[in-house]
UniProtKB/TrEMBL annotation:
Alphabetized InterPro entries for the sequence: Cyanovirin-N (IPR011058), Cyanovirin-N_sf (IPR036673)
Origin organism lineage: Eukaryota, Fungi, Dikarya, Ascomycota, Pezizomycotina
Residues annotated as signal peptide: 1-16
Keyword tags: Signal
Domain Cyanovirin-N: 44-124
Protein name: Cyanovirin-n domain-containing protein
Length: 144
């Protein structure tokens, strides 16, 4: 009886470790953690949109060329410093900016009119393609 319980515990621990090293995938398929794609965000995704709450949305391709609708809340990684858009943890830029839009040319750029420290407003741009990437068809904030 003691041997059976030990075997079950070891099996459960191994299963838990295996689950911990997998990321949730699409339609219930696990995906191993990987490095973000080196391709620019604008080359992997299309149909960019920014909702009123600051969520970036797009249709992005994974490495098998499947297309996924994906989004990233930019408030989690973009903030305002002296009226300028900057990358920062828990930035909450959407609370201090208006008329925001996403432009795609050679890179992906976030443009907004934001409040500065004196209560005035100014137009600010932030290239997000260098810090925001694509991992298995999902938009992610890359590690800095």
């Amino acid at each position: 009886m003691h041997l059976t319980i030990t075997t079950l515990l070891a099996t459960s621990a191994a299963a838990a470790l295996e689950k911990a090293t997998n990321l949730p995938g699409f339609i219930g398929t696990p995906q191993k953690a990987a490095t973000p794609s080196p391709a620019p965000l604008g080359e992997k995704c299309e149909g960019f949109a920014l909702d009123a709450r600051g969520r970036l949305e797009a249709h992005c391709r994974d490495d098998q060329l499947n297309t996924w609708f994906t989004s990233l809340d930019l408030n989690a990684c973009v903030g305002i410093r002296k009226g300028l858009l900057v990358f920062t943890t828990r930035g909450g830029f959407a609370h201090s900016c208006a008329a925001c839009e996403v432009r795609v040319s050679t890179d992906v750029t976030l443009t907004c009119v934001c409040l500065d420290d004196l209560g005035g407003s100014s137009k600010s741009e932030l290239v997000i393609g260098g810090d925001v990437g694509v991992l298995d068809g999902r938009i992610i904030k890359e590690a800095s």
